[in-house]
Amino acid sequence: MSIRLIVGLGNPGPEYEQTRHNAGFWFIDNLAHRMNAPVLKKESRFQSLAARVPIAGQDIWLVAPQTFMNLSGRAVGALARFYRIPVEEILVVHDELDIAPGVARLKKGGSTGGHRGLNDIVSAMGSQDFWRLRLGIGHPRTSNPKMAVIDYVLQRPGKEEQNLINESIERGLEVIPLVCEGRFDVAMKDLHTAR
């Protein structure tokens, strides 16, 4: 079992581009750049920006749904059904409130933690057994307890926090070849080991 589809979650449009909720989009952009991929192109039938790139000897879809976060399942489900990609061969990259900035975690399945983008993908795919690369953005309870979660995720991180998120993106990028080869245990050990 390996990965054939990597989805970065976020919201389209310039007003959301630099917000915490777009960490998945940032990851996909960085991965495409690292793989010398062509610019992600609009794929209307999948409501996404997408490109196919070779990673670890396989053709992998890189996808940034343009449906807005809460409807991410429409894009993921359409592409996965069209190319007959099983749920276990999908990696979804997303922002994670319950992880500190600078930390990235890889896991398969489990709770969505109330993340609406993940909830919609579970609904569209009929399963929660896809892989997730969780990029820590922290929680407002640690920095501003009175701030609503929605306001926090749709806000731009400060410079120091952005640098930490960029570090977690870099760590995630380093294990992508392992993930695409299906070497999940090795990828998790590498990613989850403190440096």
TrEMBL record:
It is an enzyme of class 3 (hydrolase). The keyword Ribosomal protein does not apply. It is found in: Cytoplasm. InterPro entries: Pept_tRNA_hydro, Pept_tRNA_hydro_CS, Pept_tRNA_hydro_sf. Belongs to the PTH family. PROSITE patterns: PEPT_TRNA_HYDROL_1. TRNA binds at Y16, F68, N70. The record marks D95 as: Stabilizes the basic form of H active site to accept a proton. The active site is at H21. Keywords: Cytoplasm, Hydrolase, RNA-binding, tRNA-binding. Monomer. GO terms for molecular function: peptidyl-tRNA hydrolase activity; tRNA binding. One of its GO terms (cellular component) is cytoplasm. This is Peptidyl-tRNA hydrolase. Its EC number is 3.1.1.29. The record marks N11 as: Discriminates between blocked and unblocked aminoacyl-tRNA. The gene is pth. It catalyses: an N-acyl-L-alpha-aminoacyl-tRNA + H2O = an N-acyl-L-amino acid + a tRNA + H(+). Hydrolyzes ribosome-free peptidyl-tRNAs (with 1 or more amino acids incorporated), which drop off the ribosome during protein synthesis, or as a result of ribosome stalling.
